[in-house]
TrEMBL record:
The keyword Methyltransferase does not apply. It comes from the Eukaryota. InterPro entries: LRR_dom_sf, PGIP. The keyword Signal applies. This is Uncharacterized protein. Keywords: Signal. It is found in: Cell envelope. It comes from Effrenium voratum. Residues 1-30 form the signal peptide.
Length: 209
């Protein structure tokens, strides 16, 4: 009979083929269940939960200067974005951004940032008017220092939950007295901004540290 391999000279070819096939079957059969287990694991882990697609927030983040092809499908997994129940509560964007504050404006009366509590755009090249933040009444911490943001500080007088407000080195102007309703304020920086007025009008801010 024909010889299969020199080494297995004594083994008939049919038997060799049979052994090889059996070995292959074992290999494939053994590998498949573990592959399935792996992909199952990937899909069922609790932290693999994905927030639904949020087109409004995606558009807004693009307006803030984030490149669309670098935005993950689930925006809440982006390192600059923090969410609770899939609503954006934290935005901390890096210095190189060059977008516009219009990103915060409502579109058809809907804003993706109504739950936003913490906003830091510090040192970015963002520009635009403070007025865009007028409806973000959940804001507690806001840092716009060193940005090109402008506008009238009266736009902030409805943000009653603000605890920390940093407007150092901005073009924001207007009367400092328009902050008098913000009685939760503990930290306030207005150095090198265009804000002016009588500091006595801040006497209501008894929590200021
Ligand atoms: C913002 O920066 C990006 C990337 O550096 C650039 O492509 C874009 O033109 C800039 N946009 C503005 C409005 O300056
Ligand atoms: C603020 O909310 C009102 C009412 O929903 C809306 O008409 C307006 O466009 C919003 N303004 C901004 C700047 O988002
Ligand atoms: C800011 O807005 C207030 C109220 O609308 C207005 O009286 C004031 O003149 C404005 N200040 C500046 C510097 O535009």
């Amino acid at each position: 009979s024909e010889q299969c391999f020199p080494f297995y000279r004594t083994v008939p070819c049919d038997a060799m083929r049979g052994l090889l096939l059996a070995w292959c079957a074992l290999l494939v059969g053994g590998a498949r269940p573990s592959m399935q287990a792996n992909s199952l694991n990937a899909d069922t882990r609790p932290n693999a939960f994905r927030c639904p697609n949020n087109e409004l927030a995606r558009t807004a983040l693009q307006k803030l200067g984030l490149e669309s092809d670098k935005l993950p499908e689930d925006l809440c997994t982006h390192p600059s974005v923090g969410c609770e129940d899939c609503r954006v509560v934290r935005l901390e964007l890096k210095a190189w951004l060059n977008g516009t504050m219009e990103a915060f404006q409502a579109v058809d009366s809907v804003s993706p940032f109504t739950a936003l509590r913490r906003l830091s755009l510090k040192g970015s090249a963002l520009s635009g008017d403070l007025r865009s933040l007028v409806n973000l009444t959940a804001l507690e911490v806001m840092d716009l220092s060193g940005t090109a943001v402008s506008g009238n500080i009266t736009s902030l007088s409805g943000l009653r939950k603000l605890i920390s407000l940093q407007l150092k080195k901005t073009q924001v102007e207007g009367d400092v007295g328009s902050l008098s309703p913000l009685t939760a304020l503990r930290w306030l920086t207005l150095a090198k901004s265009g804000v002016s007025g009588d500091v006595q009008s801040l006497a209501t801010l008894t929590a200021l540290e």
